[in-house]
Every structure is written in structure tokens, then in C-alpha cells.
């Protein structure tokens, strides 16, 4: 009995431990990097550490640093400490500071027992742990062997004022091997994300931020939830599958100048990031030539022809064009390239490298120069290597970089528009300089230095410069340092391609003899500079007469440990020296402008037009549409910071004034387009025009004209230029015309662009107004023949139309028909437009109920639709559907949970009434380096099917992740996937092979359905009840959403206007509508399955939709801008919500699916067990046929199946 009690007690304790473990999956302090003898920051508000020397130096983004500071407020800063908390300075304010921020908030360690400790070390057990963690997030970083680690831990720290007694504990580790640098953030406890600091600038503190920045917009990365309430989830989420742990690659000197911060689990793996980049430019064979020589490896200019007298243009860069200046020709760089025309380079940030040779103070020098320039804000970093203590006087070599400042300085606001030196030269020029250095109060004793520099231009993304230097520099005793104030240098144009400058700059040379003795020397440079470069003689006014270079905020550091001197300068250029600008030190909000008051040295931050706020902390978008600024017959749409006005249907104008469209304006309702073209109507002007389909071109019809008036027709391009032949045709040359033509293969008939085998077995295989009759040309075969009085070939792929007078002579076509030339019968005929049926003289909508209202559901009415210009069925209030089928608004299968693809993981997202998730084990699949994209479910057998683009496979597993297997392999790049749970088929899109395919659910009998005129297929959905497949094509030139039967026939474009990047797609079986998410238009929209009744569910300018799925009441989507799941009620005028992801995933979100409690009911299986398909054939639904299905051989079925598809030959005739 006692033993039984003990067993029960042990089991009970074990269950408690399991529950506790499931409840909190966060890491604890025991999971941190544990170290002894750490240095503790003083317990006070707003302080920082001493300068921490890094040896070897580390690479952060694109710059190498030899020191760093730990700051109280949750971040590390390079170059300078930032102790005080400024609410205006944020990661995204692009302040110019280089920062690593695990949790940047207003932290105060003077409260209670909070502490901040740090240690810079090379201890093996810490390096080993760091390597193991990094390889979890970056599996291919097997060669990474860390040599140093900087660890800083914030333990039980409080927010400023400690209003709620909440505490945070977190840690950052910066790990380097001297080449690559990784950052590891760990969060054990986050109880606050914001505080209120009335004593600090009198405003509410911002939310905490986490991320990285070099101070520019181009290199700023923030963690999910940074800057908002969701920051609390940093302790619950992860990018390596360990809640509370985040790893990023933050530097790699092998990608110097072309690096980007990369999160663990990113689809960009480390090996791809480190692959070499091909240069866009030809090799520069510029050798060491005498001054004023500028020969470059010649390339052909971009212009196709060069005038015979344009001698100057024979050496144009490939990125330039030849322009006539009136008195001669010049090469002008094409946008976005800059340069002299002979040399044109992109306007980018560039590394600078080179050698410095010569003698200083009688000593031979051989110094390596490395630098980096930021063209956005004129920040210029330069370093001299191999600089031991005896060369500390080389800190006075700041004038060495004056020409780099001239090249890359940014234009200040007080200047007239001018080009900087890089825009004038492309980085190819020579410099000669004479520098006299002397004490201010002793001008007789001078040190003289001469400099010769040869800038060779950009090669492989790097600016190369050779420097020759001779002379002397002051060298007093002691440990030297140099400080330089702001200075201006005026360059004056002396002649073509020649600038001179004379300047006088003061600086302080400080000699520290010992701890108590320091001598400061007040020094001056007197500099004479001469720059020469190529300038076209026929455009001498392009370069300004004067260029004033202003060097500001210069800092010089000498690191004895790694023998490096570093120079930092911010350079502005202009036609005059810049004034003091109060806006420089007071950054405004990103959607605000700084208005300076130069008299009082103050400024004002004013929100941009379309925004409202204080200009510093807030600038909120104004909804201008509330004031009804548009015309009464226009629709107002609010956009971020603006609004648009668009005239309503049947009105024309600019939106501020709209008038009714008169009868003289031709629209697609009345315009007659030639065959193989589509009518496109401009949404603003309402004018219609005909656009030939892809692979065809508009031309005059010279064979058919009336009194010399030619009509336009669409003719196919030659198939050797654009392959547009049918799959059952060959592209061959016509011996008579010597042109390539499409010719149908033997056994097939048509024009080569559409080839069909005309045999049929019953009338059900034929179209309207046609019957299956014996083929006189092929005894034993039958073909579809139009009924008497009708013309065409009779197959289901075309329509038999009434035999009347050609409509180009007498147009009796219906308003919903087009007069189109038919090559097969050599006549213009009336054909009903897409979505309508009839003989062309009479056309009714596919769902027309005018003649037979009984087709409507009992919960619908037959009403007139002005868009369709016909009577159609429309569900009554409280019901949804296409009018033929209506059901109650909230009836049908309901979603139980979501399944979402996130990089290497597939997650189960349980749902509650609030849309939040539970704390269970939600990761149902994790495969390293997997990228799961599309996802669908077999609701009958409860299997998940997903596409995996890395392995080029389609896989399946049960809802709990068990029974995983590969169903199909050897694909191109499978993306969208849809399951027909009734006919047991899987459909998918392949963006690499540009086609739609189908197979049985077990992976057998694979077949290509469509591979013509498909560019970028992605989303796909099915409607088994009507036998339709739908797909999106995000071709940027022609985005569209299409529909076809499940056998690939009767292809139809449903939506082609007002599309950007249609991605996710679903078919709502309950409402009987097709919905898609558009990543460019920022919308979710729906139409009926015939393309009518278009409506908008969501308009949100902050979202970027990829995957899309539907529940009974909600639509759900994956958002690439927030890396979250969104949802919105499908009824009109609802507000979107966010669903937080459970822990365990990492990487981008892709497809998702709502798993429901049952399958849609009342769907007839036309491909049941009693279908007449034989071995090797797929049964594909086609409800337009009498048989409701077709049997087609799979592509991998073999020759025997194809032979069985053909009717048997006739019996031999008896003699």
C-alpha cells in the first residue's frame, strides 16, 4: 500500500514537471554563457563601460572595429559610448551610430539588485558552446572556428522609475574568428518593454528595440516585435527553434562592401552569401602612367550607332551614351551610373584599398591603406595598417584623404546643385599635394611633405589608389594623439579637368609623457593641392567653377595592439561652405521634415503632408477620404500619406471631376478585336484597345481590305523567335516562304497553334450545335461535325456558329459577342465573350436565369446585374453562394487549427476565440535546410501535403507529423498545391518549369496539364463540385488569375486588371467564390467562379501577403512584413487581427491551411470506382461534357496507354 502511494506521488510530481515544462519553454539563466571574473558596470542610471579593445578586430556589417563600449540601456556601440538615453535616437532613425542592441530601453541599474557584467575572453569552453549554437542556426558554417567572444549580461534590471517593479534578464554574445562575426541574443526573462520618463525631455519613453544598425537605412535589421508591445515575445520566440535564442551573422570581411545581415534559418544560407560576386565592369588595365593619362580598357558604348565624326565616343563606357553637344560629342553616363563617360560606375558605397610607399623622417615606409565611403551621408572611414608606436606621428596624415573626401562628399542643403568628384571622374584621377606643417606661434620651423596619388577607379567593387609620399612630420616625444576641428577647403577650377586648392587647417598634437605630464602643441597644415582628370572638351560647363569641401566631426585613433591608425570624417560639399544647421543634431520622425531657425539656432519638426503628430515621436497617417475630397461620382481610397480619387464605373475623369461616358467613347463592350487578342480597357480613360496574346503581334491585314483600308489582325511571331506552337505541332521552315511555321504532327489537325485529334466516340465529346459523325478522310474514325447552318470544326475547343454573312461586312453580333476572323472557315464570325454562351447572334451569361429561373436556389432571386448585362441568380440576405447554390452564412465545416510552413519547420497553430495560440508542442516537422512553401490537406484521409522547393519534392504526412513520405520528386520548383479530395488528385504549380501538373494522390500517373503562356505560376485552388482548377500568375508584365477544367480544357482568364503580385489563393466552397491575396496591391479580394461580383475583403498598406487560406468565418494569411499570421472576418467592413506564432519555428512564413472538422458535403464523385478509365489513364473531371469526365494517359504511362487511346482500325475488307 505504501509503495502504491509512493508510485502515485511520483507520477503526480512527474506530471507537474511535464506541465511546467510545457507551460514555459523559455530558456533560463543556466542556459546563458557562464563566466567568472566578469567586469561589472557601476550601479547607476545612464553609464557605460571603458573602451573594450578587441583583438583581433571584428567586422560589423561593412566596417572593421578594434573597440566597443557597453552601455547601460541595453546595447553595444562602436567608436563612441552613448550613455544618456535619448528617445529620439532609435535603430531606425539612421543616426549614424553603429549599434548592436539586444534590448535598447531606458534601463536603470541603481534600483534594487540589478546588475550588468561583461567579459571579453578566449576561453575554450565558451567558444565551443558558441560554435555549437551557431551551427544550429547556420548548418553550413562548419569551417567557422571562433577565436574570441564578448559577453554581456543584464540581470534583473529595472526600467527607469521602476513603476511596476518588473525586471528583465538577457544576454548578448558577439563571436568572431577574425573573418566572420555572429551575434547571439538570449532572453531568460522579459517583464517590461516600455517605461515613462517625464524627467527625460518630457515625453513618454519609446518601446524597447532589438536589432543591428550601422547608422544607415540600408544596413538596419530589427528583430520581430521590436519597437512595440510584441517585443515581450522575444523570450518566447526564436530563429533557431530554441525560445529566447536569436542568432545573426552580422559581419564578414570576405564580402567587404557587399555584406547584408543574415538571420539564422534564412532562406539565404551562408555559403550562398559568401559566393563571389561577378563584376559588372570590365577589367581596368590602367597601368602606372604619367600624370594626366586616363586610358581605360575600351568597351563598346551603349548607343547602337556612333556618328563618324564623334571620335570622342569611340572610348565611351558600356554604361554611357554618345551625346551631341553642338560643338562636338561627349560620352554621358546613363542613370544610375556616375562618372566621366569614359568610366561610369554605380552610385554605391565603396571600399577603398591601396599601398603607401615612400619615406617619412628618413624612414622607408610600406603601409596598407583600407577605407570605406558612405555616399548617402558622406561618412568616410580610413585605416593605415602596420603602424607601431614609433609611427604615432602618422596620425597627422589626415590630409592624405582629402581627395577621397572630394570624391565622395555629400551635397549639403545650402548648396546649389553640383556633382561631387566621383560623379565627375568615376574614381579615375591624379593628385599632387604639398603639405607644410608648423606650430602656430613658430612658422619658421616647418615640416614639408609631398604626396602623389593615382586613383585607378572601381575594379571588382573596390576603389584602388596608389600613394607615394616623401618628406617629414613633427615627432615630439611621448604617446601622441591628434584632434582636428571642422575645416573647409575650396577647390577652384583652373582649366579643363584641373582643380587647385590652398587651405590652412589647425589641429592639436598632444604628447603624453607620463601619467601626470602632457604637452599640447597648437599646429597648422598649409596645403596646396592639384587634381587632374579627364573631362570632355565639348562640355566644359558640366563641372562647377568652385567646389567647397567641408570636413566635420573628424576623429583619429591609434590602436597599439593591432598597429592600426583609424581616421573618421563626415564630409559635405557644395558651392559654398555650409552654415550651422540645427537640424543636424535633432533628428525628426521618419515622416517629418526638420525646419531650421538659423537666427535662433533652433529647429521645428513638422509632419509631412498627409500625416499628423508632433513630428518627433509620432506622425500618423491622415484619412483624407473622411473629408470627401473627390467628386461625387468618384471613389476615394486612402493611401499612406495621401489619397487617390477614381471615377466610378461609367464615368470618366481624373477623380476630382467625373462626367458620364458618352456613346462616342469606345469600350470593350462595343470594340471588335481580332482573333488571338484581348480587349484591354484603361480604368481611368475607359478607352479600349486590343492587345495580341503573348507570342503574337498586331499587323495590317493586307489580304483582306475594303477600298484600301486595312484592318489590324494578330499574327503569330515566327516560332523560331517565340515558340508558340501547340504541343502536337513542330516548328519547321516553309521552303516556299523561307519562314518558320507551326505544322501539326501526323494524326492531328489545325493551324499549328492549336492542333487536335478530331476523333470522337459520342456526341458528348463534341461542343454545342455539333454531333459525332464518321470521318470520311480517316475510315474507321469519327469526328465532330457542326450541324447544318453552323460553321467551325465542331470540337469542344471551339464553337459552331451560325452560317451568316461575315460580320465584318454586316455586324449582327450580340452586345456580349465579338466579331473575330476564323482562319479555319476563312470568315469573320460572331463569338460570345468569355463567360457567355450562345451562337454569337444571341449570347447569355453562363448563369443567366432570364429564360429559366428554376436554376436559382430557393434562397436566391433572379435579378439584373448591370455589370454582366444579364439576369443572374443572387443569394438573398443571410445566405452566401453563386446564386445557383446558396447556404446559410455560418453553416458548413469549421476550422479547428492552422498549419503553416515556416522555413525548416511546419507548425500547428491552435485557435481560440481570441485568435491566440496554446502552449502545446506545436512543431510537427523540422528538417534542416528544408523550405516548405505550398500546403494543402486531404480532409478525407486527414493528410497534409506540402511542396518542398529545396529538395524539389511533394511530401505528405498526417496532421500530427507522423507517417511522413515523399510522394513526388524530380520536380523543378513546386510552389502552390491543391488537393481534390473527391477524385483523389493532387494539382501543383511549378515556377521553374512554368507549368501546371496533376497526379494521383499516391504520386503515380503524373501529367502536365498546362505549359503554354504561363510565366510565374504560384497559388492554386480547386473546386471539385464544378470540376475547376484556379491559379495565379504573378508575371509582372501581365499578372492574372485563370480558371480551367480539371483536364486543362476551356482555359479562361477571370481577373487581369488591378493586379500586382497575386500570391495566395483559395476557393470558398461555402460562399462559392474565389479569393486571392496580392502582395503589391496589399489586398485580399474575391470574385465568383466566373469572374463577376469582385469585392474587397482587406486593404492594408502595411501587409505583404504570401499564403492565404479560408475558415468558415475568417480568411487567414501569412504576412512577410511582420512574419505573423493575419486574419479578418470575411463579411464587409471588418478590422484585421494578428495571430502570434507558437515557438519552434524559424525563417520566413510561406503557405498555410485551415484544417476543418469535415469535408464539404454533397459533392458527386464523377471519377469513382466505376469510371471507364484503364491502366495508365487518369480520370479527370470535366463537367462541361456529357460524361462529366475524360480519361487521359499520364505522361509516364508508356506507349501502350497512348495506343489504347486511339480508336481501333476498321476491319479489313473481304475480297
From TrEMBL:
Its main location: secreted. One of its GO terms (molecular function) is calcium ion binding. The keyword Nuclease does not apply. GO terms for biological process: canonical Wnt signaling pathway; cell-matrix adhesion. Residues 1-26 form the signal peptide. Residues 348-583 form the Nidogen G2 beta-barrel domain. SUPFAM superfamilies: EGF/Laminin, GFP-like, Growth factor receptor domain, YWTD domain. It holds the Pfam family NIDO. CDD domains: EGF_CA. One of its GO terms (cellular component) is basement membrane. Keywords: Basement membrane, Calcium, Cell adhesion, Disulfide bond, EGF-like domain, Extracellular matrix, Glycoprotein, Repeat, Secreted, Signal. It is found in: Secreted, Extracellular space, Extracellular matrix, Basement membrane. LDL-receptor class B repeats lie at residues 942-983, 984-1026, 1027-1071. Residues 102-253 form the NIDO domain. Disulfide bonds join 588-605, 725-742, 813-830, 856-873. Residues 579-620, 621-659, 715-756, 803-844, 845-887 form the EGF-like domain. The keyword Calcium applies. This is Nidogen. It comes from Adineta steineri. The lineage of its organism: Eukaryota, Metazoa, Spiralia, Gnathifera, Rotifera.
Amino acid at each position: 500500500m505504501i509503495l502504491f502511494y509512493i508510485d502515485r506521488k511520483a507520477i503526480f510530481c512527474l506530471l507537474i514537471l511535464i506541465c511546467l515544462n510545457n507551460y514555459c519553454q523559455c530558456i533560463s539563466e543556466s542556459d546563458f554563457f557562464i563566466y567568472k571574473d566578469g567586469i561589472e558596470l557601476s550601479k547607476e542610471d545612464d553609464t557605460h563601460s571603458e573602451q573594450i579593445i578587441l583583438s583581433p578586430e571584428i567586422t560589423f556589417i561593412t566596417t572593421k572595429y578594434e573597440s566597443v563600449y557597453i552601455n547601460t540601456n541595453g546595447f553595444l556601440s562602436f567608436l563612441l559610448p552613448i550613455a544618456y538615453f535619448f528617445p529620439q535616437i532609435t535603430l531606425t532613425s539612421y543616426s549614424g551610430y553603429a549599434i548592436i542592441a539586444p534590448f535598447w530601453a531606458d534601463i536603470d541599474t541603481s534600483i534594487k539588485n540589478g546588475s550588468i557584467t561583461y567579459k571579453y575572453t578566449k576561453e575554450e569552453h565558451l567558444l565551443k558552446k558558441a560554435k555549437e549554437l551557431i551551427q544550429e542556426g547556420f548548418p553550413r558554417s562548419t569551417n567557422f572556428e571562433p577565436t574570441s567572444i564578448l559577453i554581456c549580461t543584464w540581470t534583473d534590471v529595472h526600467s527607469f522609475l521602476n513603476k511596476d517593479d518588473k525586471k528583465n534578464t538577457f544576454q548578448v554574445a558577439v563571436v568572431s574568428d577574425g573573418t566572420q562575426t555572429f551575434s547571439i541574443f538570449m532572453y531568460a526573462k522579459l517583464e517590461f518593454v516600455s517605461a515613462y520618463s517625464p524627467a527625460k525631455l518630457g515625453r513618454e519613453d519609446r518601446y524597447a528595440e532589438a536589432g543591428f544598425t550601422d547608422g544607415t537605412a540600408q544596413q538596419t535589421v530589427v528583430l520581430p516585435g521590436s519597437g512595440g508591445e510584441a517585443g515581450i515575445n522575444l523570450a518566447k520566440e526564436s530563429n533557431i527553434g530554441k525560445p529566447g535564442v536569436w542568432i545573426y551573422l552580422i559581419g564578414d570581411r570576405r564580402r567587404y562592401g557587399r555584406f547584408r545581415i543574415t538571420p539564422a534559418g534564412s532562406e539565404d544560407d551562408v555559403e550562398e552569401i559568401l559566393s563571389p560576386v561577378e563584376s559588372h565592369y570590365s577589367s581596368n588595365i590602367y597601368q602606372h602612367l604619367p600624370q594626366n593619362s586616363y586610358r581605360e580598357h575600351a568597351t563598346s558604348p551603349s548607343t547602337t550607332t556612333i556618328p563618324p565624326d564623334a571620335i570622342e565616343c569611340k572610348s565611351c563606357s558600356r554604361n554611357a551614351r554618345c551625346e551631341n553637344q553642338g560643338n562636338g560629342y561627349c560620352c554621358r553616363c546613363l542613370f544610375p551610373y556616375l562618372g566621366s563617360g569614359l568610366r561610369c560606375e554605380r552610385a554605391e558605397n565603396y571600399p577603398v584599398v591601396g599601398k603607401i610607399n615612400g619615406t617619412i623622417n628618413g624612414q622607408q615606409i610600406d603601409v596598407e591603406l583600407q577605407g570605406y565611403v558612405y555616399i548617402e551621408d558622406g561618412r568616410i572611414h580610413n585605416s593605415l595598417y602596420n603602424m607601431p608606436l614609433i609611427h604615432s606621428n602618422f596620425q597627422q596624415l589626415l590630409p592624405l584623404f582629402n581627395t577621397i573626401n572630394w570624391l565622395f562628399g555629400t551635397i549639403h542643403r545650402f548648396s546649389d546643385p553640383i556633382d561631387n568628384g566621383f560623379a565627375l571622374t568615376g574614381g579615375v584621377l591624379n593628385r599632387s599635394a604639398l603639405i607644410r606643417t608648423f606650430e602656430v606661434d613658430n612658422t619658421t620651423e616647418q615640416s614639408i611633405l609631398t604626396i602623389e596619388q593615382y586613383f585607378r577607379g572601381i575594379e571588382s567593387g573596390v576603389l584602388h589608389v596608389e600613394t607615394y609620399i616623401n618628406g617629414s612630420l613633427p615627432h615630439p616625444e611621448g604617446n601622441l594623439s591628434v584632434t582636428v576641428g571642422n575645416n573647409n577647403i575650396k577647390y577652384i577650377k583652373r582649366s579643363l579637368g584641373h582643380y587647385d586648392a590652398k587651405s590652412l587647417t589647425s589641429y592639436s598634437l598632444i604628447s603624453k609623457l607620463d601619467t601626470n605630464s602632457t604637452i599640447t602643441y597648437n599646429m597648422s597644415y598649409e596645403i596646396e593641392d592639384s587634381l587632374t582628370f579627364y573631362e570632355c572638351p565639348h562640355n566644359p560647363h558640366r563641372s562647377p567653377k568652385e567646389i567647397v569641401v567641408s570636413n566635420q566631426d573628424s576623429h583619429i585613433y591609434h590602436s597599439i595592439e593591432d598597429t592600426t591608425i583609424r581616421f573618421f570624417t563626415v564630409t559635405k560639399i557644395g558651392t559654398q561652405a555650409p552654415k550651422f544647421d540645427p537640424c543636424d543634431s535633432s533628428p525628426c520622425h521618419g515622416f517629418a521634415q526638420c525646419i531650421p531657425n538659423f537666427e535662433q539656432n533652433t529647429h521645428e519638426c513638422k509632419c509631412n503632408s498627409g500625416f499628423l503628430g508632433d513630428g518627433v515621436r509620432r506622425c500618423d497617417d491622415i484619412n483624407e477620404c473622411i473629408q470627401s475630397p473627390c467628386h461625387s461620382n468618384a471613389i476615394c481610397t486612402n493611401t499612406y500619406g495621401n489619397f487617390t480619387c477614381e471615377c466610378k464605373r461609367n464615368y470618366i475623369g481624373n477623380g476630382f471631376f467625373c462626367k458620364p461616358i458618352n456613346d462616342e467613347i469606345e469600350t470593350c463592350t462595343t470594340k471588335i478585336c481580332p482573333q488571338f487578342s484581348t480587349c484591354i480597357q484603361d480604368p481611368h480613360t475607359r478607352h479600349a484597345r486590343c492587345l495580341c496574346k503573348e507570342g503574337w503581334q498586331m499587323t495590317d491585314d493586307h489580304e483582306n481590305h475594303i477600298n484600301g483600308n486595312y484592318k489590324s489582325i494578330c499574327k503569330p511571331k515566327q516560332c523560331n523567335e517565340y515558340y508558340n506552337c501547340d504541343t502536337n505541332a513542330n516548328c519547321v521552315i516553309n521552303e516556299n516562304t523561307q519562314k518558320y511555321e507551326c505544322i501539326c504532327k501526323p494524326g492531328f489537325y489545325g493551324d499549328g497553334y492549336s492542333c487536335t485529334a478530331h476523333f470522337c466516340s459520342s456526341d458528348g465529346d463534341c461542343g454545342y450545335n455539333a454531333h459525332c459523325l464518321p470521318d470520311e478522310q480517316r475510315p474507321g474514325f469519327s469526328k465532330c461535325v457542326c450541324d447544318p447552318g453552323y460553321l467551325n470544326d465542331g470540337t469542344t475547343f471551339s464553337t459552331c456558329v451560325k452560317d451568316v454573312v461575315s460580320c465584318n461586312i454586316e455586324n449582327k453580333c450580340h452586345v456580349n459577342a465579338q466579331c473575330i476572323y476564323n482562319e479555319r472557315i476563312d470568315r469573320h464570325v460572331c463569338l460570345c465573350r468569355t463567360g457567355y454562351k450562345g451562337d454569337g447572334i444571341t449570347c447569355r451569361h453562363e448563369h443567366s436565369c432570364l429564360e429559366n429561373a428554376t436554376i436559382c436556389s430557393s434562397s436566391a432571386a433572379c435579378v439584373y446585374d448591370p455589370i454582366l448585362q444579364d439576369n443572374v441568380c443572387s443569394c438573398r440576405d443571410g445566405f452566401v453562394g453563386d446564386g445557383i447554390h446558396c447556404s446559410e452564412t455560418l453553416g458548413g465545416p469549421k476550422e479547428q487549427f492552422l498549419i503553416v510552413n515556416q522555413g525548416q519547420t511546419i507548425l500547428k497553430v491552435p485557435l481560440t476565440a481570441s485568435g491566440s495560440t496554446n502552449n502545446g508542442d506545436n512543431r510537427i516537422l523540422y528538417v534542416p535546410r528544408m523550405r516548405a512553401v505550398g500546403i494543402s490537406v486531404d480532409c478525407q484521409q486527414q493528410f497534409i501535403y506540402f511542396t518542398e522547393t529545396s529538395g524539389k519534392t511533394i511530401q505528405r504526412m498526417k496532421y500530427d507529423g507522423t507517417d511522413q513520405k515523399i510522394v513526388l520528386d524530380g520536380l523543378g520548383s513546386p510552389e502552390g498545391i491543391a488537393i481534390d479530395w473527391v477524385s483523389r488528385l493532387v494539382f501543383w504549380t511549378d515556377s521553374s518549369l512554368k507549368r501546371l501538373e496533376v497526379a494521383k494522390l499516391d504520386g503515380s500517373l503524373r501529367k502536365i496539364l498546362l505549359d503554354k503562356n504561363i510565366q510565374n505560376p504560384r497559388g492554386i485552388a480547386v473546386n471539385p463540385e464544378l470540376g475547376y482548377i484556379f491559379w495565379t500568375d504573378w508575371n509582372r508584365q501581365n499578372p492574372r488569375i485563370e480558371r480551367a477544367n480539371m483536364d486543362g480544357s476551356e482555359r479562361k482568364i477571370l481577373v487581369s486588371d488591378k493586379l500586382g503580385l497575386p500570391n495566395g489563393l483559395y476557393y470558398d466552397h461555402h460562399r462559392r467564390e474565389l479569393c486571392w491575396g496580392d502582395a503589391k496591391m496589399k489586398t485580399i479580394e474575391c470574385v465568383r467562379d466566373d469572374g463577376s461580383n469582385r469585392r474587397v475583403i482587406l486593404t492594408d498598406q502595411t501587409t505583404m501577403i504570401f499564403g492565404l487560406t479560408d475558415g468558415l468565418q475568417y480568411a487567414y494569411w501569412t504576412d512577410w512584413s511582420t512574419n505573423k499570421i493575419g486574419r479578418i472576418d470575411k463579411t464587409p467592413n471588418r478590422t484585421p487581427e494578428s495571430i502570434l506564432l507558437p515557438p519552434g519555428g524559424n525563417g520566413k512564413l510561406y503557405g498555410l491551411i485551415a484544417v476543418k472538422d469535415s469535408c464539404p458535403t454533397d459533392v458527386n464523385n464523377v471519377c469513382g470506382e466505376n469510371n471507364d478509365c484503364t491502366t495508365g489513364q487518369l480520370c479527370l473531371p470535366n463537367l462541361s461534357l456529357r460524361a462529366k469526365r475524360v480519361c487521359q494517359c499520364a505522361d509516364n504511362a508508356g506507349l501502350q496507354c497512348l495506343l489504347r487511346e486511339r480508336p481501333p482500325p476498321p476491319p479489313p475488307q473481304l475480297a
